[in-house]
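Exercise 7.
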Amino acid sequence: MTPRLDVIGLVVSDMAASLAFYRRLGVEVPADADTAPHAEAVLPGGVRLLWDTEDVVRSFDPGWTAPREGERLSLAFSCDSPADVDSIYADLTGAGYRGHLKPWDAVWGQRYATVLDPDGCSVSLYASAA
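Solution. The predicted structure, written as tokens, is:
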């Protein structure tokens, strides 16, 4: 049997803040998940995105500590058009989320931008420039 990617897990310090960010990106997360220690959503294609609070992770891995520096994880969201990259970036940064790389035309043929989620995870937005 060949393993297949089924889950992407995020460890978050503030569940409601993290879920609000990903909802702005169109991820459908149940409304009652904001106060839960664990939440999940099924993404297009069937991969699941999971959120666990730091306390949940410590419950089964008592030695776990949050990273002090650097990114915890990087995600990339495909957008329909270069204009959507710009619009979504503007929406997120306008809502107070931290922009990391403003939209730009990458040499590999994509419109590209990066924002940081509430826990500092890099979230790229991209679309084919053609």
